[in-house]
Amino acid sequence: MKCKNYVISLFFFSIVLIYLLSIAPAQTMPETNDKFNHIVGFLYLSVLGRFVYKTSYIVLGLLLYGIFIEISQLFVPGRSCEFLDVVADGIGISFGVLVSNLFKKRK
Questions:
Q1: Cβ–Cβ contacts within 10 Å for residue 76, how many?
Q2: Which residues contact 100 (CB under 8 A, 6 or more apart)?
Q3: How far lies 60's CA from each of 11, 27, 46, 75, 98, in Å?
Q4: What is the number of alpha carbons within 13 Å of residue 41 lying toward its C-beta?
Q5: What pLDDT shows up at residue 1?
Q6: Is the CB of residue 25 less than 8 Å from the CB of residue 34?
Q7: 30: which residues sit within 8 A by CB, 6+ positions away?
Q8: pLDDT digits over 7-24, tens only?
Q9: What is the domain count for the chain?
Q10: For residue 31, what are the domain limits?
Q11: End-to-end alpha carbon distance in the chain
């Protein structure tokens, strides 16, 4: 039970951290591959979240979270709202669910 609480805490800490990084002005961030960042970030969140939540909650919740980030970026200098970022989020979530299913089958 204690481990579950750590995973939940890490999951929500990661949600907040990713949001803060996502709304930082573009000129303060290093130049990286944006779509790759979305895939990896949402893969990580979905794997972590699947340890404590149902798949349907994780998929829907993280997709809505990705849309929320994109809408928030409309108000940040140098950032933009991109549909393909949400697609990349969905790809990351899908891979994350597949990876977490592999972990769960090994138990």
A1: 14
A2: 46, 47, 50, 51
A3: 15, 31, 11, 24, 15
A4: 25
A5: 64
A6: no
A7: none
A8: 999 999 999 999 999 999
A9: 1
A10: 2-106
A11: 17
